[in-house]
């Protein structure tokens, strides 16, 4: 690196312009440059502009070279440098080095994600002798709000929701002192000049403070939680609802009032020691908990103490996070127990951000609110991660991660600006600009009107923040996705090219892009396992519903080499909510009612299915009435969970059946029982198309036999996971073989789709594929589920645009 930098600077004069691109605004980059320049006695200036940070410097070449080296090796903690470009500077530079006002211009920089409280600020708010003792909005350039308060760029205070709070004399001095860690920290504030926290009653009555042990309003809020109250808390990206997680009656009341039947609640604890009472915490998981992103981390609930079952019904994991803001740090100062810290909303609605809306909606759930007078500009939920195959992997990408960009791989440098509209559920969108992909925060299900409105608002915000003017749009080919309908409408109105992308191809392309697979690289086998996606028309698709696919794919195209057996979904979308429907359809497709009655009539699932309207379902399946065939791995999980009796009637939330099935897996069986008892799945060929498919008839006979033998469901769940991983590997080996003597058809396999959020399936499949010398690509920074689809759409659209430009 030193030699390269020496060559870069040897032909430059003593005055040099240094352009730094990436996430370099609002992270303390300019004061870092100032400090380095002062130490080297260089002259010049540094400023923010629409492209990042611009440095103009005069001095000995060796000192300039040293400055560039230090910027690369010692950037601020929250910075992410994309490129450093050097050029001669012709102009006058005064003696000394100064930080100058931001310049406007087209945006080519990045907005930093919100960052959890740093150690220095955490110590400060707990120090009785510090000026910001117990100030709940303390921050510096190394931590604090970013995306949640920003309205535009350059990222200056005037462009944030801190604009209404003029700096006091002391804060202004810190803000203007380059040597201070708060130099140009845009959200800087203190007790004298900043936002104020306030404990209020939603019914408008005065709070009776003498009833509470308190140091201030924040402390009083925790006193209420300790007494069993539910309290609404205005956090960074939206309101939260909090209650004592060790009080079953409080948790049950919150679940009932929030209308959240069974979905696990997120938890917050004061420190790692509290979390270890309830969960095992590895080194990697502790690092994730303590990171600047401060996500919710799914942990094995195997600690010496246990929380009420109602916190996470049917789960073997708990989702914990540490206090991520000074408000949370102060809130938990006297709390040695975990607290439920869930999103402030009614079930399936977006998180509340507006104070009036909080009173109207959350007032039905909580009597008290810990609020404040700083507006939330942008709704951002908590990120969720888990450890699998030795890496922390993203399940929901939001606070702390969005809108950090992903560099597109080699070959995408000439891609035009593109906007990909993403899926309908777990909605995100993605911008392509300057060879990078900017993935929005998780936004939820677009069928909810308020969520769709927020999605449209964020499209406008990101366009402004990133100076984005798309030349092409991308969307899912599903005809009814609201995101796709919006893309088609905008493409027509604005006369832009529209690239419609098959759902599972997008899953695989997202995995390729995240892993840096070059545009010109050979095709890989993509194994895409999820719930539902619209298949293309044509010989192997027919517009059917896909969900368990083996695609020979690159960014440009794909070939469907294999699939799961298509099985009817009686009731259509209703079958996604009621697992027994999938169980019935599978058993009828494999065995038929007569055989089931003859061999398994003593089973409870037979009696339960006999009570259902079978004649109606049989007619629907026979006549193809609202019973589309689906090659869905997700629906197979639903059917098996129903057969084992762990989620038979109804799923309280999307993916509940599969999550419960994973949660009960017997670890001893996974580790010690041989593959000979794993449930067998065959690979015959589909009639008509001739492509191989996963046939589960032998698996169903084995499952029914184990039910007759009263095999523990934990053992059965393990055998199912092993069998599924086995057939994925067997299919990969089958598809890799060529008929001639040429080498294998592929040597790399990409695993994507929401089913690979299942840690056991991912670990079993990846390990077995690697043992057979395949190169395996998986997701980590981008979700494997639909939260990553927009990135795949963007990469595919970019490839098409590059090819079209080359052809011209």
Sketch the major β-sheet. Answer: 10 strands, mixed
| Uncertain ranges | 1-13
Q: How large is the count of helical segments? A: 26
Reported by name, the CATH topology of one domain is Nucleotidyltransferase, domain 5
Radius of gyration, CA atoms, in whole angstroms: 28 Å
Q: Supply the helix-strand structural class.
A: alpha/beta
Range of strand content: 15-25%
**What's the overall average pLDDT, rounded?**
93
Helicity level, as a percent range?
Answer: 25-40%
Provide the CATH top-level class of one domain. Alpha Beta
Placed side by side, the strands forming the largest sheet appear as: 6-13-7-8-12-9-11-10-14-15
Cα distance spanning the termini: 39 Å
Can you give me a brief rundown of this structure?
Pathway: Protein modification; [NiFe] hydrogenase maturation. The chain has 808 residues and is α/β, with parallel strands linked by helices.
């Amino acid at each position: 690196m030193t030699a390269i930098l020496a060559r870069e600077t040897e032909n430059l004069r003593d005055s040099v312009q240094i352009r730094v691109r990436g996430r370099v605004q609002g992270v303390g980059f300019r004061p870092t440059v100032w400090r380095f320049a002062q130490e080297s006695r260089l002259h010049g200036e540094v400023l923010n502009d629409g492209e990042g940070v611009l440095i103009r410097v005069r001095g000995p070449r060796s000192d300039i070279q040293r400055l560039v080296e230090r910027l690369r090796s010692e950037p601020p903690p929250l910075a992410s440098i994309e490129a450093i470009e050097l050029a001669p500077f012709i102009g006058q530079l005064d003696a000394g080095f100064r930080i100058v006002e931001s310049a406007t211009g087209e945006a080519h920089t990045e907005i930093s994600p919100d960052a959890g409280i740093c150690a220095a600020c955490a110590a400060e708010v707990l120090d009785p002798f510090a000026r910001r003792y117990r100030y709940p909005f303390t921050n510096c350039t190394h931590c604090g709000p970013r995306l949640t308060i920003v309205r535009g760029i350059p990222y200056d205070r005037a462009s944030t929701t801190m604009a209404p709070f003029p700096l006091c004399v002391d804060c202004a001095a810190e803000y203007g002192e380059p040597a201070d860690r708060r130099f140009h920290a845009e959200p800087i504030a203190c007790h004298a000049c900043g936002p104020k926290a306030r404990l209020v009653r939603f019914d408008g009555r005065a709070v009776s403070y003498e009833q509470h042990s308190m140091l201030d309003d924040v402390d009083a809020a925790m006193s209420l939680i300790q007494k069993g109250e539910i309290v609404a808390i205005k956090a960074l990206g939206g309101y939260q609802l909090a209650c004592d997680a060790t009080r079953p009656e409080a948790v049950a009341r919150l679940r009932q009032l929030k209308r959240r039947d069974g979905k696990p609640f997120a938890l917050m604890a004061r420190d790692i020691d509290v979390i270890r009472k309830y969960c095992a915490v590895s080194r990697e998981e502790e690092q994730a908990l303590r990171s600047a992103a401060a996500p919710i981390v799914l942990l094995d609930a195997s600690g010496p103490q246990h929380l009420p079952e109602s916190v996470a019904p049917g789960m073997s994991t708990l989702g914990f996070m540490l206090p991520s803001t000074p408000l949370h740090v102060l809130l938990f100062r006297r709390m040695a127990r975990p607290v439920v810290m869930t999103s402030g909303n009614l079930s399936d609605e977006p998180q509340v951000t507006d104070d009036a809306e909080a009173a109207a909606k959350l007032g039905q759930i909580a009597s008290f609110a810990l609020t404040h007078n700083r507006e939330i500009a942008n709704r951002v939920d908590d990120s969720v991660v888990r450890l699998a195959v030795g890496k922390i992997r993203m399940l929901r990408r939001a606070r702390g991660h969005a809108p950090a960009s992903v560099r597109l791989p080699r070959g995408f440098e000439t891609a035009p600006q593109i906007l990909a509209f993403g899926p309908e559920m777990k909605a995100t969108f993605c911008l392509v600009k300057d060879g990078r992909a900017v993935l929005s925060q998780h936004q939820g299900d677009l069928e909810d009107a308020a969520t769709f409105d927020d999605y449209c608002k964020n499209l406008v915000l990101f366009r402004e923040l990133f100076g984005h003017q798309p030349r092409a749009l991308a969307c899912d080919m599903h005809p009814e996705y609201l995101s796709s309908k919006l893309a088609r409408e905008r493409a027509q109105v604005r006369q832009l090219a529209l690239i419609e992308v098959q759902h599972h191809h997008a899953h695989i392309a997202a995995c390729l892009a995240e892993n840096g697979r070059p545009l010109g690289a050979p095709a890989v086998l993509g194994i895409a396992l999820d719930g539902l996606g619209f298949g293309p028309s044509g010989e192997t698709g027919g517009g059917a519903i896909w969900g368990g696919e083996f695609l020979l794919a690159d960014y440009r195209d794909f070939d469907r080499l294999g699939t799961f057996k298509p099985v009817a979904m009686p009731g259509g979308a209703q079958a996604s909510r009621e697992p027994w429907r999938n169980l019935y359809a599978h058993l009828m497709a494999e065995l038929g009612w007569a055989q089931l009655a003859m061999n398994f009539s003593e089973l409870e699932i037979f009696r339960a299915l006999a009570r259902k309207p079978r004649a109606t379902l049989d007619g629907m399946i026979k006549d193809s009435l609202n019973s589309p065939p689906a090659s869905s791995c997700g629906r197979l999980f639903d059917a098996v969970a129903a057969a084992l009796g762990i989620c038979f009637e109804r799923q309280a939330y999307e993916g509940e059946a599969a999550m419960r099935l994973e949660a009960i897996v017997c670890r001893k069986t996974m580790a010690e029982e041989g593959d000979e008892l794993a449930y067998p799945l065959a690979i015959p060929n589909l009639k008509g198309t001739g492509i191989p498919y996963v046939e589960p008839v032998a698996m169903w006979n084995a499952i029914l036999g184990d039910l007759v033998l009263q095999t523990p469901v934990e053992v059965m769940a393990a055998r199912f996971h092993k069998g599924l991983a086995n057939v994925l590997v067997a299919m990969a080996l089958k598809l890799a073989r060529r008929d001639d003597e040429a080498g294998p058809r592929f040597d790399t396999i990409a695993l994507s789709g929401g089913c690979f959020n299942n840690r056991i399936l991912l670990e079993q499949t990846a390990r077995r594929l690697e043992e057979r010398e395949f190169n395996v690509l998986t997701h980590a920074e981008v979700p494997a589920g639909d939260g990553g689809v927009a990135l795949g759409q963007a990469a595919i659209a970019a490839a098409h645009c590059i090819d079209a430009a080359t052809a011209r």
